[in-house]
């Protein structure tokens, strides 16, 4: 089954996820969707110093939004912040240093943020593919801690703030790679299998899709979406997938092309008219499963994911 899934997925990717896939999909875009002024609205983007996150932040800043950049490295973050300000002329760009693999730190950050700021849109973009099994200081597997638990804790902690605002949205940058994985809640820390970073990453990205669907069911007044940026030429792809990068480098999307649907989901009135909880690619809701791939999960499995994340997140919540 994994051979079948990988082959179908890769062929799909060659057609849709590449730069030419973007160019052909973009013929159907409505340019007016992004001709908006979001002055007065507040956007938080994790992993905003680089790649898709930085490109999305720049586009939102051009449209007047107030930006809260969440980055783990102060030097890289300061550089990105000043580049965004210089390029857009928007001075409302604020920096917060936070490691998304540290759940306690995320809780503390969010509690403080809530007392000082408002928030209309949260963009969960930070992500990693660590190819060796590495544990955080809390003993959590690094990919899971960053991609799944970090996303869960930050979103959960900020929901009350988002709920106070008009047209609140949560966008999570997942990956089409999740299509090769069925949700698996039996081993969230990947401690019981031969470790394969690509598959752990794909599993985390599947978890983000399920999480988004579950949030949308419960929090009706917030618009949730999850998306695939396509295959874009970013530092993460170069460093975590060097062979894929060498093979595909002439076909990859630009960072801005990868960020296009993030920006569309974050700012356009058209995106908010779509149902909450969907998975997007190139401004369209798309299927969350490959045909005949047997990746559907049961409601019980999905409930178990939420239970496990809730239990873990509470363990790190400061009292
Ligand atoms: N590029 C693609 O083809 C592609 C395809 C599918 C999905 N995605 C997803 O797109 C998102 C953005 O990735 P990208 O391709 O734009 O790569 P990128 O340029 O390397 O950006 C990843 C960002 O996440 C940050 N980050 C990673 N771990 C973090 C942590 N523990 N705490 C805080 N920030 C952390 C990175 O910070 P540092 O600079 O400090 O490392 C960086 O800012 C990711 O979720 C990725 O999975 C990308």
From TrEMBL:
Transmembrane segments: none annotated. This is Dehydrogenase/reductase 12. It comes from Pelodiscus sinensis.
